[in-house]
Amino acid sequence: MQGYKLAEGQYKTDKLTTEKMWDTFNWLFSAYSRNDTSYKFIFLKAVIDCLDKKDAKGRISFDILFREYTMLSWNLVLKYGLAQKGAASDGRKSTLENVLRAKHDGESDFNELFEEEKKLICHEVKMQCKKYAVGALYGDTDGYIYSFSKKDEWIEVNPIMEKFIRNHKEMIENLNYYKWAKFYENVNDTETTIRVQKLIDSKVARKNESVYRTILASEFERDDIKNGPKLNTLELLWGQKEAESKEEKLIESDYQEEIYRDIEHFKQYINDPIQLLTELRKSKGI
């Protein structure tokens, strides 16, 4: 059964090596992981943000997770007007967009709302988005990150995987942002891109970065912006090199093939992205 259809799931208890855990994220962030909506990216970010919000049983409730999920989505949908799924032939928007726009016009910051209004909005987002987001991320990580129950509304993070995520939080989040931004590039039209460019403060826009990556950075990485960029995704590294020589070209599908074809290449990227970039340039004869 496909992950999003599952009502519950148990995290796998077989021995998790560091290589296996990297392999799990390798596949999640590869071109082979199907993404019809933005839900998996938002939910993974929510899970990471809520690791310290467990109850006495070591579980994180859906109420907590989807409050974070709603806050993460608020500006993306209502301020920037970003589509959260590809265009449908009948013009339908994603459930997340419909819920948020039906509940609020977006003129107010989420934190400015009355608490009762926040609860109502978060409850509706939870009831609609838990149908797909929770099981989809569980399935795409092969059941290694968490157990969950849609009926009782909780997830329980695998403690081995939790330690790994904490140790590599910055890299995992950067990879999540990268694929999240690429998703928005694919589902939003040129008119949207031009419009949101005008909404971004030029002070937070970073060299060689897409408008969507800048939006995510400005929303969720404010300290990073203030202190200077820490990112080391291949896209940014390549952009810096490309700025030095306009003739140098690299097709994204090509370097994705290099990065994601096996765990050794992915680990090399994690450990030394500059070295991988050099090898890619050499292999392409440029």
Number of strands: 4
Helix content: 55-70%
Low-confidence stretches: 222-255, 257-261
Class per helix and strand makeup = mainly alpha
State the strand order across the main sheet.
1-3-4-2
Outline the structure in words.
With 286 residues, this protein is mainly α. The protein has two domains: 3-168, no CATH class; 174-283, no CATH class. The protein is 57% helix and 4% strand. It has 15 helices and four strands. It has helices at residues 18-28, 39-49, 62-79, 95-103, 115-129, 133-140, 159-167, 169-187, 190-197, 211-220, 222-227, 234-244, 252-260, 263-271, 273-283, and strands at 8-9, 60-61, 146-149, 154-157. A four-stranded antiparallel sheet has the order 1-3-4-2. The longest helix has 19 residues, at 169-187. The protein is globular, with a radius of gyration of 19 Å. It starts with 7 loop residues before the first strand and ends with a helix. Mean pLDDT is 80; it is low at 222-255 and 257-261.
Quick overview of this protein structure:
The chain has 15 helices and four strands.
